[in-house]
Amino acid sequence: MKKLLVFVFMATSIAGISQSNEEMKCIEKNKIEYNGEVIKLKRAIELSEGVSEVAMRDFKSLRLAKLRIIANSLLIPSFLGIGIIEISEGEDKESIAYSFLFAAGSTLDLLNSRNQKSILTKSGVEAYNNAIQNN
Question: What pLDDT does residue 13 have?
Fold first, then answer.
């Protein structure tokens, strides 16, 4: 009888733990945790399919934000290098100004993309968890 009670207690406690682990958590601003492990963005998109369209949309937008961060990280030094080369070659002031203007614009977009990345991560996780709780 005691073994049966221990078994029932263990089964209900494990079931309770597994239900709470179905939720995603946002850790360190931009990382997603599911079932106690950090998951990649692709896995978060797969998990949100059929569960929450809002979460899936946010995670797909997050993928684009990451690509923008990579692109801007490549563009900023390129524009600065072009501007420095134009200065050393004695180019006209207008083309030099455009190079540094594009570098400044890419820098602002980079900062915006990083902010958007953390916002999309949090909203995607919240949308997923709300959809899980409502089902």
Answer: 47
